[in-house]
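Allow me, if you will, to draw on your knowledge of protein folds for a short while. I have a record of one protein: its chain in single-letter code and its fold written as discrete structure tokens. I remain grateful for any guidance, and I place the record below:
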Amino acid sequence: MILFVGLGNPTSGSQNNRHNIGFKIIDVINQKFSLSKQKPKFKGLLTTGNILNNKVYAIKPLTFMNNSGICIRELMEYFKIDAGDVIVFHDDIDIDFGKIKAKLGGSSAGHNGIASMDKFIGKEYSRVRIGIGKPDQKISVSDYVLNNFNEEEKEQLEKIKKNIIDSLPILLDKKLDLFSSTVNN
């Protein structure tokens, strides 16, 4: 059993924010692998299905980014999912735009969604960190992540989504280093 988590904010005005890249990845996984229709459960939008003979749950928390862990803990407790079987997709300003890195645990590095996950489920889950780059000097980090992708970034976002989908079998096997090197090609 695998739980995919996409971090983001649930408001209609947030859909194309850089901070919502995790939601976008869940949407493309749902579509590509024909997971069930999204249903509001566990304070999130939940889908289920099978991917390559793995029972999969995918969720977009509706608790807002800073409280994502509340939703995930509820779901994990109900389905008895171990933290080691959780894979979280989220934005990362410390990685160049479009680059992707996967790792197990680690610091939240100031990411409030990850800090919430750590607080409610511990740190022993996998993270797929999707680079959104750093803001220039003229804009704060919070304004940058809450702004929409620009036109150039939107074009690159399609490649990011495709690369993640193409490398998903490796991620399902929890080969995080191999996934990190493969997904960026």
Q: What stands out?
A: The chain has one domain: 2-183. The chain has a mean pLDDT of 96.
